[in-house]
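Please, structure for the following, as tokens.
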Amino acid sequence: QVQLVESGGGLVQPGGSLRLSCAASGITFRSYSMAWYRQAPGKQRELVASIATVGTTNVADSVKGRFTISRDNAKNTAYLQMSSLEPEDTAVYSCNARHRTLSTLDYWGQGTQVTVSS
């Protein structure tokens, strides 16, 4: 059974930092690209950052320079390091795993709430 479990969300003040983790089980982690998405109330889900199996990363313009995605294949875990957080970053953050060649193998975590507020 495939599971993606996010952790690390919470309430943080503007300018603060958080690190989200996405622990995967039931998949050959190194064969999957990983991504973080977020969805704020009343808005569409948007891609925040992705990391390919070879480590190539992409980050949305809205968070470039503030967020960093990484992965640890030995721990089957992907991370999203978030700094200089802004109220506009408030959202539910979800991780996604997609097989590098079989796109139908696509899995989602349940999400973790990030709230940026003073």
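The chain has a mean pLDDT of 97. Residues 83 and 110 are 23 Å apart (CA to CA).
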